[in-house]
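Collaborator request, handled under Task 6.
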Amino acid sequence: MAEYAARAAAERRVRDGGAPSRTREAVGVWHRPALLNLAADLLMLFAAVALGYALVAWFLSRPLFPVREVVVLTPPAQVTTAQLEYAARTAIRGNFFSVDLEAVRESFEVLPWVRRAEVRRRWPDVLELRLEEHQAVAHWTVSESGEAHLVNRQGEVFVAASNADLPGLSGPQGSAAYLLARHGEFSQVLEPLGRRLVALALSARLAWQLRLDDGMVIVLGRDQEKAPIGERLARFVAAWPQAQERMGGVQIAVADLRYPSGFALTPVGQASAVKGKK
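Structure tokens returned to the collaborator:
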């Protein structure tokens, strides 16, 4: 009787515990054809895309589409043909499709007079080049180091050589744009004198000095709260005809405008100054 009960219990365990195990095994990944087919399709698609990309990259890298010409759409005024040819030879690598336009653009922008360059492809074998050149408006000297460069209309300093008759600016590093703006302001104030401002200097102590085309140096010094440099310069311009008459046509070497209510004039070849008041 006991043996019969044990056998019945074993059969119940088999019916209750064994069947679910077989069911779980039956629903595994390898017994789901739809899932296997989807995975296989995805793998084949990935392989096809990778192979296609490799074939396209190989094809485009072949010397089948060479760049035959670089067309300059904006004729340069300062950059020479030799400089353009050298930049093109050193930067153009690959064919029409693989050439790195960014690298080509950078190679042209390092040329001395080039401010900005734009490069684009034109089918089937041409690169088009547009150049924006610097327009120099002043010579620039860094007061601390004495480095000499040029300043463009935007107040940007660039490295190039020029023999043009341009005003000279000198000041601390990074102050070129500020000096260029002040040069324009001072030039307007000096217009009644009929003289051109050819040099403007700002010292490290922020003291101003001007030089006119007749050689006269105007010392403005530092800006003062009670006597700003603009007011002192305007007062000098207004009083200059009378002062010139008093000097009897003597050429002035230095006009010292650091006084809050007047100025001192030093004639050429003399050490002593003649003071004037308004």
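The cover message to the collaborator said: "The domain at 69-133 is CATH 3.10.20.310 (Ubiquitin-like (UB roll)). DSSP finds six helices and 13 strands in the chain. Please let us know whether this matches your experimental observations."
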